[in-house]
Amino acid sequence: MTRLESMLEGTPYVAYLYGYPHKTAYRPFTPALPLEDVWAKERRDALFLYLHVPFCEMRCGFCNLFTAAGPKEGVVQAWLSALKREAGRVKEALGPATFARAAIGGGTPTLLDVAGLETVFDLAADLGVDPRAVPMSVEVSPETVDAGKVAVLKARGVDRVSMGVQSFLESEVAAVARPQKTAQVEATLELLRGAGFPTLNLDLIYGIEGQTPDTFLHSLKAALRYTPEEVYLYPLYVRPLTFLGKKSRAWDDLRLSLYRTGRDFLLAQGYTQVSMRMFRAKHAPAARGAVYRCQEDGMVGLGVGARSYAGDVHYSSEYAVASREVRGIIQAYSERDTASFGEVRYGFVLDEAEQRHRHLVLSLLAEGVCPGAYRQRFDTDAKDDFPMLAELEAHGLARDVDGVFQLTAAGVERSDLIGPWLDSEAVQKRKQEYAWR
């Protein structure tokens, strides 16, 4: 039995792969790498700027994002001061750079007050990001958005807001330790929709204890009342050190059927499926600005918890989930001086083999692998470099469509199995050795 066949006999929900490699494969650099050297060979004409706000009003039971709940004002201000120091040092190291995309995420960016939000936007502008010229996305939450903050987002030219609703039923969000009121969610959605943002994205979760196809459809229908341009459907994952993870419960039974329920409903409503999680409406605006290719172009991450992709070096702050560990990392970040931000201390160096893995994984889990693009970049053929792809075809999980190697519907719903299956042996080993903290 091959490794793929063995995995196919288990859960289709192995891990959500939103980048390659995962942070659990990162390790300390000894000695630290100079920031200028890390960016020296990277193209800087189509970068992605990501600013991470590591704070939330509360921490949901399923959350393993790098965030601290209910921070004191002094902690937030110390973090903002450090963010300014980091941004200045990064700007110096980058030199002339053009950004094709920008996003402010977290955590919950709208936990910041109006002055804090303005500061973050000012830092992005100082680096050369103009939201009126490039797409800019910001994550919000029902508990932290108000008219004043929405006015800031509009004034700054934000064209996409994303909100994690998870469910429109209070009993379901309570089951994942999220004390959310549906009336507040609806009022926030009215506020956001009324502000006229070109793209509204809503996140929903399936696999919550007690959830059924009927209750999931209830949330989907409630979400579509606000005509979101994008909808993301996330399977519930129970990860180590989260509230649900500590309960040691199994959550796998209904996830696949709930996924199919949601997928079929959104497709019937005219949405296009972009990936396992992402669905785009017909009325969604066309992409604007310079082209950004995640397989090739770099990402500048600012703020503790943010990742950066600079050619063959991916780096970030250290990764943790447990509250005490996260708070300690935030404090250490806030105490760093400007010079220290010129050092890259923690990450992963991608040799050519790993760069091929990354291109393959990110392509296959999205639009598919284009042989011409792969050959142009690596001067080889993807199927020659990865004969294991034939296994996907043999199991009906992928096929060639108009010359592009794409996942089938069966493959898309197993994206969270196929992604980890494509990990290199070195990445697999590092992930297995990682000690959760």
From TrEMBL:
Keywords: Iron, Iron-sulfur, Metal-binding, S-adenosyl-L-methionine. PROSITE patterns: RADICAL_SAM (PS51918). Gene3D superfamilies: Aldolase class I. SUPFAM superfamilies: Radical SAM enzymes. Pfam families: Radical_SAM. InterPro entries: Aldolase_TIM (IPR013785), Coproporphyrinogen-III_oxidase (IPR034505), Elp3/MiaA/NifB-like_rSAM (IPR006638), rSAM (IPR007197), rSAM_sf (IPR058240). Residues 41-277 form the Radical SAM core domain. Its cofactor is [4Fe-4S] cluster. The keyword Nucleotide-binding does not apply. This is Coproporphyrinogen III oxidase family protein.
